[in-house]
Amino acid sequence: MAGLQRVYRARIKSTQSLGKIFRAMELIAASRIGRARAAAAHQRPYANALTRAVALAASHVREEIRHPLISLRPEVKRVALLVLAADRGMAGAYTANLLREAEGHAAELEQAGFKVDRFVAGRRAVSYYDFRGVPLKKTWLGSSDAPTYLIAKDIAETLLDAFTSESDSPDAVGELHVVYTHFWNMVSQTPRIVRLLPLQLVEEAEADQVTALPPVGIEDDAAQVFPLYSFEPSPEGVLDALLPRYVRSRIFDCLLQAAASELANRQRAMHTATDNAEDMVRKYTRLANEARQADITQEISEIVSGADALAASL
Amino acid sequence: MSRQLTVEIADWEGVKWRGAGRFFSALTSEGSLGVYPRHQPLLAILRPGEVKVEPVEGDQPVKVRVSGGFLSVDSDIVTVVADEAELVA
Fold first, then answer.
1. Which residues are CB-neighbours of A282 under 8 A, at least 6 positions away?
2. Fewest CB within 10 angstroms: A9, A64, B24, B44, which?
3. Is the model's pTM score more than 0.90?
4. Which residues of B are less than 8 Å from A237 in CB distance?
């Protein structure tokens, strides 16, 4: 019937225009990945110089290093969990995977007797927690796919404040764990949990289930013996100034990784969606053609049988 | 050709200036600091202020305003890592 044909035509049209939107989103995501990766590359000289300087200053401090950002705080039974998710959906299972990882980890921590303070960046994760009535300490919205240094700075300052506050204050935390999606390459991004605070400057045998960050400077400077440096004002003073910057730069790095992962996920999801839209258009075109053929066949047989009936009655 | 300094000034946005210089000066936490080639290895905290490089080519010194950060000198390589750096025209 002609009605069926019309239905199929309308469906083809709407699927086509959806396909165009998916295609555009895919292209936008693809072009932004380039920018996100470039931002990560630009930050590298800064991060490398910082890492080297921290390793250097640490190697020149004679006595055992005592710094609030390095020392463990076993008396504080609170852990800050920083979750870096996306502001928008349309990225497949990106946020869902990340949240599953984060909540699994939070459950483990709670079982071990810790209280978990959640700090969340990304609207999708915030609405997930809001819906479940989970209290959040602080949230950051609106820049998950193009993080700026200012956001990283704000996040770092909030968390450093929490980490360095007196142990009897309600905001104090003993550790900081970051859940973000690591960008390995264009096809592989996986959620990852790292312990950012307290910082590890020397390797210690740790039976922690969380991957701690590799000790500062271990990758390329391990075999290197540093020359005798002079410090202004002093090795301790330099370390004092460097460590908060180091934390900030690590958080920024996590944000950039998460942004690149989000965009790669979105590109992939939108690519699949475009393909599916094309498949649907193809399927509906076939059905519409079939319906038209059926209509024609029916009309012909009606005419023929009508003519037959007329001829017989004469 | 005498020895020269290789200077790199970077902030989180990337490298702001890179090149060869004859002399380098900056404001550190202890006061004003000048670096000629063959300077002792050094790690210093910067105060907000201007970092100056006298480049090998050209007479005009390159000035970069920094809002704090640190500075390392090692085998004639000067690395300035600023929180924010801005070239002064």
1. none
2. A64
3. no
4. 29, 45
